Amino acid sequence: MPDPNTPAPRAGEPARITCSCPVCGAMTLPADSFDLVVCASDAGRSFYQFTCPKCSGLVTKQASERVVTGLSARGVRVTSMPLEALEAHGGPVLTMDDLLDLSLALSKSDAVAATLSATS
Ligand SMILES: [Zn+2]
């Protein structure tokens, strides 16, 4: 978890944030190494992520409201959770066979045109 008590940077210095990679351990990274995604309707779904400079792993962690406040105050990029991520999904899971069938169907331009004309 980033330490929200890390002092604010002096003028001209990039903010540095203490964080931890599950593989490499604790480290301090500049604020622009992080992305913070905030979910306004469900604070429990907010998260931050960074790419570990040692192992290149993408580290993603839940962001409490305290962490959101601390990271945004230090200049971390903040984006809103896309609405698509909040949609409820039903139906069967998309499989590799489904994707291959779609790829084959799309490769036949006549079939695509027939499908589009049938639906319009
Ligand atoms: Zn790492």
Query: What order do the strands of the largest sheet run in, or round the barrel if closed?
Result: 5-4-3-6
- Mean pLDDT comes to 88
Rg calc: 21 Å
Task: Please provide the count of β strands.
Answer: 6
Q: Could you tell me the strand content as a percent range? A: 25-35%
Query: What is the terminal-to-terminal distance?
Result: 51 Å
Description:
The chain has helices spanning 65-73, 96-107, 109-119, and strands spanning 16-21, 25-30, 34-38, 47-51, 58-62, 77-80. It has 120 residues and is of the alpha+beta class. It has a domain at 16-88. The strands form 2 sheets. It has a 4-stranded mixed beta sheet, covered by helices on one side. The protein has a two-stranded antiparallel ribbon with strand order 1-2. A hairpin with a 3-residue loop joins strand 1 and strand 2 (25-30). The longest helix is centred in the last third of the chain and has 12 residues, at 96-107. Zinc ion (ZN) is lined by residues 21, 23-24, 52, 54-55, 57.
